[in-house]
Design brief:
mainly alpha
Length: 280
């Protein structure tokens, strides 16, 4: 955390790194003091271990300041940049090897340097656009990040075809078709998208992103559409009371079903049923 704070101060504040390091230490003291108050008031401090750590932390703080004053600024700056880049771009090698079906002893990067080809620049721009349009990291964003990592690894592999991973506009992926079949077959059941993704051999982020690419809808929206179609069918043609229709569609209460129906159709299910029967 200290290195990242120092890097942030270096980007936002003017001055030498010794002064910025002092500011970082002051902020660290404030953060630590707040954390101590919270943990002590919550009664979650393991005092025997804390008593051992307190003098060690104080000694390390004084020693760090003493050393920092005697280290040239260029060395401090280079260390901060190096660690910051490592933290920002670190890729778990085991995860990457599993993703690319590489043996554990195989080198992850075939080349020491990567040429920023236009297709790789486009992949980075696409990822940036997606992250800029979303306030939080969602499932699709996670998948977009994974795809960009794949693109970087492809760029380092001279034998890999350097083709941008574009979007597919027509629904032709068999995994999406299978997922839709599962949804339709279980429209009257409670469904878990984790289970659906697993049944088609995809991770949840990959499934959400691929489904959106193929249908222009998220799985949640598509699932709600199927439920609405089934709700309309049952309201029109069945004689079951609303509570039974709600239970048939996996709702725990009639009120939840009524709100769901009204939000999507614009009228309560009772009025819709009356109008549908009057027109029949």
């Amino acid at each position: 955390m200290g290195v990242m704070m120092l890097a942030t101060l270096g980007l936002t504040q003017a001055g030498d790194y010794h002064r910025l390091n002092a500011m970082k230490n002051m902020l660290a003291v404030v953060i630590a003091a707040i954390a101590i108050l919270v943990f002590v008031s919550g009664g979650v401090v393991a005092w025997p271990q804390a008593i051992v750590m307190i003098p060690g932390g104080a000694l390390g703080g004084y020693a760090g300041v003493w050393i920092a004053k005697r280290v040239p600024q260029n060395v401090v700056r280079g260390f901060v940049v190096a660690v910051g880049l490592f933290l920002a771009f670190y890729i778990d090698p085991d995860w990457a090897r599993r993703r690319r079906d590489l043996p554990s002893s195989a080198p992850l990067f075939a080349q020491a340097a990567i040429t920023l080809e236009p297709w790789l620049h486009q992949a980075a721009a696409h990822l940036l656009d997606h992250l800029s349009d979303n306030e939080s990291i969602d499932d699709i964003a996670n998948y977009e990040i994974e795809r960009f990592i794949d693109s970087v690894l492809d760029a380092a592999d001279a034998s890999a075809p350097h083709v941008a991973r574009g979007r597919v506009n027509t629904m032709q992926d068999f995994r999406v078709r299978k997922a839709i079949q599962l949804m339709k077959a279980n429209v009257c059941e409670r469904i878990s998208f984790d289970d659906v993704a697993r049944s088609v051999g995809l991770s949840r982020p990959h499934f959400f992103a691929l489904f959106k690419e193929q249908t222009n809808l998220t799985p949640n929206v598509y699932w709600n559409t199927l439920r609405m179609e089934e709700a309309v069918r049952q309201l029109q043609w069945s004689q079951e009371p609303l509570i039974s229709v709600a239970c048939n569609l996996g709702f725990t209460t009639q009120g939840n079903f009524s709100r769901f129906f009204r939000d999507h159709v614009g009228v309560p299910p009772t009025l819709y049923r009356e109008a549908a029967r009057a027109m029949a």
